[in-house]
Specification:
CATH architecture: Up-down Bundle
Radius of gyration: 21 Å
Number of strands: 2
Oligomer: single chain
Distance between the termini: 67 Å
Bound molecules: protoporphyrin IX containing FE
Number of helices: 8
Number of domains: 1
Length: 238
């Protein structure tokens, strides 16, 4: 009896989120949370420009790592948002494809693909590029070599040195910059599309959200774009 009711509850929960709308809501909410992370991440990375040989960035990274379990909770949350975003995204793409092919089966399509179809195809392509980029990036930096420095008598990881060293390599610097162009497209469309999926937009707010999405995309991806290029050309190896 007890098992039956647990089964029914889990079915209800799965059933609720396992619908087109449910998946879109999960994709939208996790996407917006990931944008929040990117803003914080960019703000921290801009410390590379402080011109202090990495003192500020290294101290920031050190403080973050001193948080211990709290940092791990934040990392687990981040990984959860990332995975939910990918899984719901893949499922929405598969479902759209099925819907489209059954429509084709019923009647031959007139004219070219709609603007929405083109946009969602771009979201899938740019999303896939980011899916390859993020693990490669984490492997390169978080799990990269451990250089040490001493600041005000405190030994700590020299993450600044690692960033500068990596971006002194032209292949790394320019491929990072190239990926940021795709990030810009993903964010610009993803932002308003997320608000749309959450039902937060009406006819008045739609053009505003669309513009904010483009501005956000350009500012966030632009910041990440400038970083490797500027480092490659102008920042000396510490
Ligand atoms: C120029 C661009 C970027 C630079 C210089 C940069 C730098 C870094 C560094 C230094 C770390 C390691 C932090 C530490 O362990 O203290 C890191 C981690 C990370 N970055 Fe980036 N990042 C860039 C762009 C991005 C982008 C565009 C994304 C996502 C789309 C991203 C996602 C992450 C994630 C998920 C981590 C792991 C966080 C953790 O280990 O706690 N980064 N990044």
């Amino acid at each position: 009896m007890h098992i039956m009711s647990t089964d029914r509850t889990s079915y209800k929960i799965r059933g609720k989120w396992d619908t087109t709308v449910g998946r879109k809501v999960v994709m939208a909410a996790s996407g917006l949370l990931l944008i929040g992370y990117l803003i914080i991440h960019l703000a921290a990375n801009l410390m590379v420009f402080a011109g202090d040989g990495g003192r500020l960035l290294n101290r920031y990274s050190y403080t973050l790592h001193q948080l211990g379990p709290l940092l791990w909770i934040a990392r687990i949350l981040l990984a959860t948002f990332f995975l939910s975003h990918i899984i719901s995204g893949i499922r929405v793409v598969i479902q759209n494809r099925r819907a489209r092919s059954s429509r084709y089966a019923m009647a031959a399509s007139k004219g070219g693909p709609s603007k929405m179809t083109v946009a969602s195809r771009w979201m899938a392509i740019t999303g896939l590029i980011l899916l390859v980029f993020v693990p490669t990036h984490v492997w390169m930096f978080t799990l990269g070599p451990y250089y040490e420095t001493v600041i005000d008598g405190v030994p700590m990881r020299d993450i600044y040195r690692l960033v500068v060293e990596r971006f002194k390599n032209p292949v790394t610097a320019f491929s990072y910059a190239a990926v940021m162009l795709f990030l810009c497209l993903h964010l610009a469309h993803g932002f308003w599309s997320a608000l749309q999926s959450l039902g937060a937009l009406n006819r008045k707010w739609l053009p505003i959200a669309y513009t904010v999405g483009i501005v956000l995309g350009v500012l966030i991806a632009g910041g990440f774009f400038v970083l490797p290029i500027y480092t490659y050309f102008f920042i000396p190896m510490p």
